[in-house]
Amino acid sequence: MTINLSNQTVLITGASKGIGAAAAEVLHGLGANVVLMARGQAALAALSAKLGGERVLAITGDVGDYGVVKDAVDQAVATFGGLDVVVNNAGVIDPVARLEDSDPTAWAKVVEINLMGVYNGMHAAFEPLKASGGTIINISSGAALNALEGWSHYCATKAAVLSLTRSGHKEWGPLGITVVGLSPGTVATDM
User: What CA–CA distances, in Å, run from 191 to 17, 76, 95, 154, 157?
Assistant: First the structure.
């Protein structure tokens, strides 16, 4: 079976390393236009240069900022004529700490990135994905179902992503948007 994603445009958050970078390489290799979004400008530029060509658009930005995500979606549509897939992959785990030792501001920042980033990606991409009959892939984690000591912020946000994905499936499936989630176990990345 040969997969050909020519003329498909995929926006990937957290694209500068780990799962996001690997997804970008595979999807680009299958012919997709890839819109790479991440906070790490140097790593994003390196990946963009590695992939090369007219089918790559790199956007530096924080998924916790709705305006930045909406702008990335708008740039994807303006550059490639539409949007077919969003991979909501951006996420953080630091700082790891037991609940009583955690910093409320740092905990809230993880919620902003891991949960609100996914919501922002879904909300911002709704119209173009509805037009294309597109797909949203939300990256959760095995930690969504198995609490780990010191990871309350990560486990809680990934469980919320799992529930948000189920809500998106129920609400948007009838509108032609496929909303699915992946919950990988331990993956060998910098995180």
Answer: 9, 27, 11, 12, 16
